[in-house]
Amino acid sequence: MDIPPRVPPRVLTVAGSDSGGGAGIQADLKTMLALGVHGMSVLTAVTAQNSLGVQGAWELPVDAVRAQYRSVVDDIGVQAVKTGMLASASLVETVAELLADLDAPVVVDPVGVSKHGDPLLAASALDSVREKLLPVATVATPNLDEVGRLTGVVVEDETGMRRAAEAVLGFGPRWALIKGGHLAGDAVDLLTDGAEEHWLRAPRYDNRHTHGTGCTLASAVASGLAKGMGVPEAVRAAKEYVTGAIAAGFPLGGGIGPVDHAWRWR
């Protein structure tokens, strides 16, 4: 008996490459595989990167980014898109223009710096993120450092997370997921659309190997949306997945190792 092939949901990541394999395009595709969707990629930049930091970064031409996007979307199609490192104002504006015509949910991870503090987004691109990219987002997923750069809101507690979410929503995304992992205590995130709030809490593990956490979470959210989940359900599933990946993070090289995208299989 012939069994017709199952076509999995398709998710596109528009992001930079991490040569060390812990974050960026590599983390996105690993996450998508682990969560049962077909991952595709538009490469925006190449980094020389390892467990110690980013030694170099080179953005791709706008025409190359646009061509990759059209190649995938026009032929294969997508059920969700996740954006990560976009590097410059010209790339942010190009990607935002492309996504504006897309009939699929978009998860925007407004990557500003690497885990080691290396800049991955030009300061001159912040206005483009605020004015062009965030308005096309279904969910924006900034951490507290990114919130500060985008809004000027300094978050020191959960009340500050509410202020941050309000400020981010003011730029136009439908939902804001404020990641409070840099606060003391449990790892707490706030998801809100301005009308309803969802607080997501998880234990904080004594594990320094957390490289790729933000990319992994955003890709997991996009994977859930591609499967037809609502935003709160997709975010809760993503939080559960990334919490397990952080707990199982492992050492590589002489610095900060990656989260374990395959933790459910080990």
Largest sheet, in brief, is: 9 strands, mixed
Strand arrangement in the largest pleated sheet: 3-2-1-4-5-6-7-8-9
Order of helices and strands: EHEEHEHEHEHHEEEHH
Number of strands: 9
Identify the overall geometry.
globular
CATH topology: UDP-N-acetylmuramoyl-L-alanine:D-glutamate ligase
Rounded Rg? 17 Å
Distance between the termini: 33 Å
- The mean pLDDT is 93
Report the structural category: alpha/beta
Helical residues, percent: 25-40%
CATH arch. level architecture:
3-Layer(aba) Sandwich
Strand content: 15-25%
The number of helical segments is 8
| Total tally of structural domains | 1
Poorly predicted parts = none
CATH class: Alpha Beta
CATH superfamily: Ribokinase
Domain Pyridoxamine kinase/Phosphomethylpyrimidine kinase: 18-260
Keywords: Kinase, Thiamine biosynthesis, Transferase
Pathway: Cofactor biosynthesis; thiamine diphosphate biosynthesis; 4-amino-2-methyl-5-diphosphomethylpyrimidine from 5-amino-1-(5-phospho-D-ribosyl)imidazole: step 3/3
Enzyme class: transferase
